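Lab notebook, design round three. We kept the backbone fixed and only want residue identities now. Task for the bench partner: fill in a sequence for the structure below.
Input C-alpha cells:
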C-alpha cells in the first residue's frame, strides 16, 4: 500500500512551465515556500517545519527541528508549505518554475524509492515524500563536483517534481558504462549511480578551454538527468552583460560631441 498521497498532475508551457496538481478530498502536496502559482479557494495552505514525513527523525518536535536544520544545510529555508484539498470533490493547486527550463516529474516507486538531486532543483511532491540531505562520500566529488558535499535526497513511493534549466536529457547507463559531464549540468540521478570527478589531464585546456580543470563522472548502472543550461551559467552571462552594458554598446549618437563622449567612456577616460 502506497504511503505517499496519490496525486495527479498536468504540465503546461514549454520553456516557462508550471505544473497543476489535482488533489482528491483530503490529499496534500508539499512545496517550497514561495513556489505556488495559484490554488482553488477550497485548498488549505499550512506552513510546517521540514517535510512533515517524519521518516528520518520521527514525528516529534526534535524530529521536526532536525529536519528543518537539514534544510538549512542544503541552502533552503526552514519552512515548507503543505496544500490540502478540504473540498468534497477534486481541487487544484499549481506551482511555477523559478527560471526558464523544464519541470521533471519523478515517480519514486519506479526509481527504487530514492532520487539524488541538486540542492535547488526540488519544486513540489506528494505528501509523504521525504526530502533529506545526501552527503558526498568522496572528497574529490565534494570539493570539485559543482554541487559540493551536500545534495538533496528524495525518498518515498509518490510523485516528486524537479526543475532545471534549458533542455533536459535523461540517460540510462548500463552496468559499468561511464559518461563525463560538466559539473554544473547534473540535475538528478538514481541512488545506484556512482558519482565522482576527474582531472581533465591538460592544465592548458582546463584553464583556457573554458570547461574548468575537473569533469564529473557518472558510472552506471542507473539513470541520470542532465540540464543544458545550469542556472549558475545563465547568471554569469547576465552578470557579465550587465557589467559591460555601459562600455561595450554603442547606441547611436545624435551629434559628434555625443560620439566623442561615448568613445571616452569606452576607453575609461573622464
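Proposed sequence:
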Amino acid at each position: 500500500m502506497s504511503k505517499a498521497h496519490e496525486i495527479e498532475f498536468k504540465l503546461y508551457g514549454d520553456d516557462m512551465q508550471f505544473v497543476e496538481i489535482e488533489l482528491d478530498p483530503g490529499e496534500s502536496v508539499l512545496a517550497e515556500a514561495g513556489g505556488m502559482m495559484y490554488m482553488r479557494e477550497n485548498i488549505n495552505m499550512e506552513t510546517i517545519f521540514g517535510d512533515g514525513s517524519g521518516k528520518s527523525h520521527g514525528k516529534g518536535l526534535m524530529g521536526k527541528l532536525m529536519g528543518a536544520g537539514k534544510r538549512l544545510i542544503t541552502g533552503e529555508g526552514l519552512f515548507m508549505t503543505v496544500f490540502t484539498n478540504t473540498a468534497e470533490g477534486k481541487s487544484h493547486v499549481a506551482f511555477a518554475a523559478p527560471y526558464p527550463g523544464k519541470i521533471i516529474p519523478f515517480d519514486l516507486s519506479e526509481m527504487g524509492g530514492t532520487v539524488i538531486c541538486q540542492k535547488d532543483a526540488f519544486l513540489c511532491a506528494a505528501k509523504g515524500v521525504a526530502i533529506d540531505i545526501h552527503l558526498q562520500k568522496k572528497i574529490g566529488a565534494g570539493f570539485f563536483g559543482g554541487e559540493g558535499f551536500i545534495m538533496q535526497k528524495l525518498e518515498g513511493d509518490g510523485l516528486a517534481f524537479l526543475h532545471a534549466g534549458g533542455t533536459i536529457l535523461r540517460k540510462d547507463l548500463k552496468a559499468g558504462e561511464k559518461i563525463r559531464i560538466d559539473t554544473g549540468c547534473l540535475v538528478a540521478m538514481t541512488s545506484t549511480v556512482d558519482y565522482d570527478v576527474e582531472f581533465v589531464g591538460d592544465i592548458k585546456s582546463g584553464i583556457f578551454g573554458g570547461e574548468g580543470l575537473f569533469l564529473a563522472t557518472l558510472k552506471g548502472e542507473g539513470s541520470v538527468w542532465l540540464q543544458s543550461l545550469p542556472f549558475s551559467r545563465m547568471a554569469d552571462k547576465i552578470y557579465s552583460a550587465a557589467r559591460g552594458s555601459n562600455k561595450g554598446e554603442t547606441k547611436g549618437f545624435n551629434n559628434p560631441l555625443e560620439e566623442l563622449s561615448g568613445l571616452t567612456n569606452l576607453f575609461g577616460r573622464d
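Keep this in mind before ordering anything: The first strand starts at residue 8 and ends at 12.
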